[in-house]
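Q: I have 76 residues here and want to know how they pack in 3D. Can you give me a structure?
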Amino acid sequence: MLASGAFLAVAPSHAQTYDPNFPVCLQVYVPRGGYIDCSFTSLPQCQATASGRAAQCYANPYFAYAQKSRRHRRNY
C-alpha cells in the first residue's frame, strides 16, 4: 500500500485540455491518439496551423465562461 501511494505521488499530472484564455482550439488527429491545443486567438490563425494536417479548428467551449467570470470580478 505504501508503494502504491508513492507511485501515485510521482505520477505526472495532465494539464487542462481547454485553456479558457483563448477562443479557438485545434484538434489534431494522429494514429493512436491526438491532442487538443487551445492557444489560438482567431479561427484563421488556427486554420493556418491546421492546413495540410489531419486537424480541425473549433470554438473553445470554455472561453465564454472565462469571459463571464472576468466581468463579474471586482477589485477593492
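Q: Anything worth noting?
A: The chain has one domain: 16-70. The longest strand covers residues 33-40.
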